[in-house]
Amino acid sequence: MKIGIIGAGNIGATLARKLSSAGHEIKLANSGGPESLRELAFEVEATAATKEEAVRGVDMIILSVPFSAYRDLRHLFDDVPEDVIVVDTSNYYPFRDGVVPEVDKGKAEAVWAGEQINRPVIKAWNAALATTLAEKGMRKSQRGRIALPVAGDDLESKLVVMKLVEETGFDAFDAGSLASSWRLQPGTPAYCTELTTDQLESALERADQARSAQHRETLIKSFMEAGGSLSHGDIVTRNRAVTA
User: Residues 6 or more apart from 176 whose CB is under 8 A from it?
Assistant: First the structure.
């Protein structure tokens, strides 16, 4: 597939590297422009591009940008064909993104994101820490393979994305519609807790929308207070404990 990735931080760069290794043709863009990406693009075997170039002539667009940045992306999709799949990997954190009243009132983050760009999205790769995505992928045959939820309203598009999730080293789990994708947002038992498929299914069922924002804020506060002293394992353990 030809895939454009907008956002070259930890998540976007990791997906570019893994999907390129799986044989896909990747165009990688960020807010700094192609020159800022030359070295990274060479390393992950992608083509450095502008955001406008990254959405042209591709089968899929992966958006790996801060949640608030969606407000500035609508113009990119004016001439993108409707059959191009758009993937949302973002998460809403008010301390970083500013307050989004609609989401605070219960609208699923992925629904809001799609409204900003006037395109339906598939929610994927959001519910894993960057280190998880980069280092914890496994072959399909290995025991204990981590599962990642994928949500969306278009079944055909969702199946395509789920196949790519598998190629990045994780079991893809159909988490339902975009309206129910709040179940894989920050503060829920499915978010960044490194679960197997059976465990993830149970976690999605246990999600409590009324409490998820409170859990998210509790976790952020504890992580900030800890500074950089927490290991990756510590973060996963705290996520599991607070959202259980």
Answer: 151, 183, 204
